Predict the structure of Ependymin-1-like.
Amino acid sequence: MYAAVTLFVFMCLTATTHAEHHQPCHSPNMTGFMTVISQKAGVKAFGAFTYDSMGKKLRFRSNESHPINTSVGLDLLMFFEEGIFYEIDSKNQSCEKKALQCTMHPLDVPDDATFVSTLHSGSSSIEGEGLKVNAWSGSMPDSKGYYSMFVTMGCLPVTTLYFSESTPFLFSNTDIELEIKDPDLLVVPSFCLGQPLEETAEGTVNSFLNEFM
């Protein structure tokens, strides 16, 4: 499957773009499910996410709603504007507060992304049997890698691939709804309030993506 996705990305990167100028769009508020797949380890995580596009906040909780055999169990609350995030352990009523060195994540097109092409997944001629998406690409600021992101005409992120020095990762989003169903998920839990900011080890880059690497 991963080889097929990689081929699809290669086709996108070599496609002819339209003449008109395209500006990166920004995703709306969303609730949905995210699957994280590594070429080396297979499915790394599957869980529910809540995204506040205006406040630039993200909550991701893996293996809660649909437990599967994955190697990563996470509960992350990211504050991209403030440059901090929390790793939450609700079971033990504890958390870790850390600094964000990189704010890139798979739910929004970066401002410096380059438009690649407009594509149809499935069929463009049969009603209800295709999905029109815009493909964007760019470099990853904290590594020598690059990304390819595919979003709908309404700027809903469908799939994002990150090609880093370690291993390629695929982030796939499903069952997206255009609302924040539970705003409390984007509020710091009471047992995390007053938590000191942990020191970041030299050479460490904290980011949403690196939580899965």
The longest helix spans residues 2-13.
